[in-house]
Inverse folding.
């Protein structure tokens, strides 16, 4: 009996230690692709989302006039990005469906599932009365089907322009996927300011079989800490990645005008869904509702590596994905910045390589 109890106690301790392991992120490398680079009659830039599948990287381009995605080979050797080779570009065209004409395809995120189906997330255009959308396409850019939005996300008066769907992640159970809002719904709270406010965004789980949302959680945005210089001071979620079941890396981007090329503060948080987290799917407004958001902790700040980056620029990071395993067996992460095709001034086609370290 004593041996049995001792074995149980040792097993419990091992489980508890395993459960308490925390992940940290280590900066390895930066790689900058030349701006305005021509590829197959198109300019490379505007990379607003990234995914890694079948030994290739897929980058979605934020260009509503010519929606498209790019396939690339990001060669990682000796834990640095050795070279990036662009392999193909696919424009969204379809002669059998009206979906592309009926929607504004302002593409913000991309992922490819285990069946090699391509999923795209668009933030739409609230000013043009066009809702955000989630849809599937084939490898030639032809529309397959779309997903139904929950009522509070399909109410166009509730969604703010340029603050709709921005990020997505494959779920580790392969049965669905996660989609995150960039900003706060009108009914949910206040935009982040220089004071701490309740600024929850919604992260929604969509089931592949039903093509509907089945659960949703609130995530609180950080307030803005750097002094104002211009009239734009905002914070929002630009990328998410489920790296362990119900554990996410979430990229928050503070942008402030008046700082030129140095207006971004980028932070990565770990957020966790646990038994206490409130499923807010059936809650229309979070302003006057008691709810428990995802627990979060800061795991990486780009301010800590600013001096190691090109001209000290932390650019507009909008995509995050797993990459290949590193030489030590640890998992890599690859992040990408949207340079907005340089229309707002100097920006970079910036790729960042990180390492996940489990302590």
């Amino acid at each position: 009996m004593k041996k049995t109890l001792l074995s149980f106690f040792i097993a419990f301790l091992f489980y508890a230690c395993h459960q308490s392991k925390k992940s940290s992120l280590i900066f390895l490398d930066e790689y900058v692709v030349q701006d305005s680079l021509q590829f197959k009659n198109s300019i490379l830039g505007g990379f607003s989302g990234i995914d890694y599948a079948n030994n290739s990287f897929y980058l979605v381009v934020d260009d509503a006039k010519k929606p498209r995605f790019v396939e690339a080979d990001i060669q990682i050797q000796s834990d640095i990005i050795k070279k990036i080779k662009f392999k193909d570009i696919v424009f969204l065209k379809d002669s059998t469906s009206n979906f592309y004409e009926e929607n504004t395809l302002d593409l913000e995120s991309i992922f490819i599932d285990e069946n090699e189906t391509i999923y795209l997330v668009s933030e739409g255009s609230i000013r043009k009365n066009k809702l955000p959308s989630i849809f599937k396409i084939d490898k030639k850019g032809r529309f397959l089907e779309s997903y139904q939005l929950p009522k509070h996300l399909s109410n166009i008066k509730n969604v703010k322009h340029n603050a709709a769907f921005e990020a997505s992640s494959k779920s580790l159970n392969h049965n669905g996927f996660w989609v995150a809002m960039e900003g706060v719904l009108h009914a949910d709270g206040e935009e982040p300011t220089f004071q701490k406010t309740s600024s929850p965004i919604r992260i929604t789980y969509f089931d592949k079989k039903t093509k509907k949302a089945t659960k949703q959680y609130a995530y609180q945005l950080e307030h803005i800490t750097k002094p104002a210089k211009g009239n734009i001071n905002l914070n929002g979620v630009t990328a998410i990645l489920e790296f362990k079941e119900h554990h996410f890396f979430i990229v928050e981007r503070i942008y402030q005008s008046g700082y030129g090329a140095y207006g971004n503060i980028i932070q990565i948080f770990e957020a966790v869904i646990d038994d206490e987290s409130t499923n807010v799917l059936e809650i229309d407004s979070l302003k006057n509702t008691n709810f428990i958001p995802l627990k979060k902790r800061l795991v990486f700040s780009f301010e800590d590596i600013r001096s190691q980056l090109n001209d000290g620029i932390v650019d507009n990071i909008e995509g995050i994905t797993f990459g290949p395993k590193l030489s030590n067996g640890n998992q890599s992460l690859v992040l990408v910045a949207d340079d907005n095709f340089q229309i707002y001034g100097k920006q970079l086609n910036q790729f960042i390589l990180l390492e996940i370290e489990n302590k």
In short: Helices lie at 2-19, 99-102, 151-154. Residues 1-18 have pLDDT under 50 and may be disordered. The domain at 24-358 is CATH 2.115.10 (Tachylectin-2; Chain A).
